[in-house]
Design brief:
The two termini are 17 Å apart. The protein is elongated. It is 8% helix and 38% strand. The longest helix has 6 residues. A 4-stranded antiparallel sheet has the order 1-2-3-4. It is mainly β. The chain is built from 1 helix and 4 strands, in the order βαβββ.
Length: 71
């Protein structure tokens, strides 16, 4: 999947489609809670994921994920 960092506001499908998505790695330690990322799957479906919490002790990143149906 290709991804791009968005903002701290839930993106719309149009927001995600308008971003320049790439294969850049995003390291957990650089991800702040509440940040959204847009993505495009290998099937061409767009979506977003939101960083909910990050536990360095457990090395655990919790995410909320939404994928839109194919258009």
């Amino acid at each position: 999947a290709s991804m791009a960092k968005y903002e701290f506001v839930e993106p719309t499908l149009e927001d995600c489609k308008s971003l320049s998505l790439d294969q850049t790695r995003h390291y957990k330690r650089e991800i702040k809670e509440g940040t959204y990322f847009c993505y495009n799957t290998s099937e061409g479906r767009f979506g977003w994921l939101k960083a909910i919490s990050w536990s360095e002790e457990e090395n655990k990143l919790s995410l909320q994920i939404l994928t839109w149906k194919s258009q």
